[in-house]
Amino acid sequence: MPHQGDQDNRPLHGRTTVPVVDLNCRERVQQPMKLFCVGCGPGDPELLTVRAVNLIKSAEVVFAPTAREGKSSIALSVVEKYVSKTAKTASLVFPMVKDKESLKDYWKRNADDIAAAVRSGKKVVYLTVGDPALYSTWIYVHRELKRNHKDIEVEIVPGIASMFAIAAKAGISLAEGEETVAIVPACYDMDRVRRTAAACDTVIFLKDGRYFDSVIEMLGESGFPDNANIAIAQDVSDEGEILDVKKLSELRGKKGPTEKYFSIMVAKKNARE
């Protein structure tokens, strides 16, 4: 008697039957473990890429950074209308401290939590404000993943950085022709800021509005003319957004329009009307 397996492959009406393979099952088995990092843009839910929105809508687990335990995540608040009601959301703490040794523990722990969720087979998204590649919490998480979780594939979805949103709203260019641009993450070291301002045509100051009055005076001493365009904004693309565009001469010697920590200033040396 022929073996049953041989019977299954014998010709039938001139054709050979083949074992049925569940392609969907094979695809699931071969599907790599993958994490999606999504840039949430400057704060307006309408300023996300189509790719970002689609990934957030289909996510089963959504991680978002926060500065401390119990504090709501800015990134999550931006995209919450796109998050599925069945998705699990979790905040990961990234303290705003300068002690890198203590921060490393948070970076590793957060990366481990994300990796565990990805390995569970869920579709996992990590959110970050602005663009993941620019002064983002994602940079530290990604480093830990590459070091300790090499089996996890990563896709990074870019977002609109706040400086581009400000330039668009203010109607100014960041650079043209051979002009150079510098980004300064904080204004603590005024000597460094002064050297940067003297060497570049456009300087973008991020986050620390408490120092902007000193920076404005320094710009005048570093080659920025009185008619240089200065755009200062806080809560970019949010309902409480404040945007003020003035000439340098209008701001020197006066109290700046904002002292809020999360503020951005764009200073353009060559104001071409």
Automatic annotation (TrEMBL):
Protein name (Swiss-Prot/TrEMBL): Precorrin-2 C20-methyltransferase
Pfam families found in the cross-reference section: TP_methylase
One GO term (biological process): methylation
Gene Ontology molecular function terms on file: cobalt-factor II C20-methyltransferase activity; precorrin-2 C20-methyltransferase activity
Keywords, ordered alphabetically: Cobalamin biosynthesis, Methyltransferase, S-adenosyl-L-methionine, Transferase
Record carries keyword S-adenosyl-L-methionine: yes
Coiled-coil residue spans: none
Pathway, per record: Cofactor biosynthesis; adenosylcobalamin biosynthesis
InterPro entries per the UniProt record, alphabetical: 4pyrrol_Mease, 4pyrrol_Methylase_sf, 4pyrrole_Mease_sub1, 4pyrrole_Mease_sub2, CobI/CbiL, CobI/CbiL/CobIJ_dom
The keyword RNA-binding is assigned to this record: no
Sequence ranges assigned to domain Tetrapyrrole methylase in this UniProt record: 34-251
Gene3D superfamilies: Cobalt-precorrin-4 Transmethylase, Domain 1 (3.40.1010.10), Methyltransferase, Cobalt-precorrin-4 Transmethylase, Domain 2 (3.30.950.10)
Species for this entry: Nitrososphaera gargensis (strain Ga9.2)
UniProt similarity note: Belongs to the precorrin methyltransferase family.
Domain of life, source organism: Archaea
Gene name of the record: cobI
EC numbers: 2.1.1.130, 2.1.1.151
